[in-house]
């Protein structure tokens, strides 16, 4: 079922520098980003804390607590805390020690577009197991932990890649089921190019928890920042970094808004090294004619929104009515 969103979801996260002298300062930024991200989602929120321990094919069973409003579950190599409502309602100070120790953190705030907001199965971060993976490397995939901001043509995507039945009703889950089975840059780009609609994504392969994958497809914004201790961050709104400077002890050396059609791999070039951009690749994303509206830039300053809008470079797919709850895209024909 498709839900009409009044806004977009919020993405944020951190990849730590192992030699940072003040890990608690980067944690303060994560909590600040999560609070600011409430402007882009209050249906649910969550954090994934990656321990840096790779997940195996025979990962241990889940442990922790869960009910219909919230959960705190430990997967092998990953702790995921999420719940219905705002990030402020999900976050609690008792998590600070675990946050300080996590080499990588993925955060999400949700406005429901596809999938009911009342089910925790639709809340992110999503943990996609290796058994759910689809693609040339699915047989040895350990699964991924992932977040998505946007709204894509899920029916067309499922028809093309045939992922297994999903646990929830979001458009995000089938995308990550397919991405979990891709190991090469060309394979990942093939999946990203197949997306039709709005999409910004952040995910971690649980077999390589030190590597973060970021992608901005059509419309959905995504920015990256580096602080003065060489920690790497990402967020849906670049203004959040400027506000974080005002309310924490962290200072950012660089804040960059990613262009549409950007895929990045972030991580240390060698064990124990500071994280950096390991590789990048471009692709031509596809949006629908109605995807570009002011909701894309919820919370942005007018200057940031204008600068980003002027740089859009996706192609537009004409749409044909199909089954209830969506449209079927035809061949893209124009470029914005």
From TrEMBL:
Entry's CDD domains?
Gn_AT_II
Q: Locate the Glutamine amidotransferase type-2 domain: which residues? A: 9-269
Q: Which domain of life is it from?
A: Bacteria
**Which protein, by its recorded name, is this?**
Glutamine amidotransferase type-2 domain-containing protein
Organism annotation? Actinomadura harenae
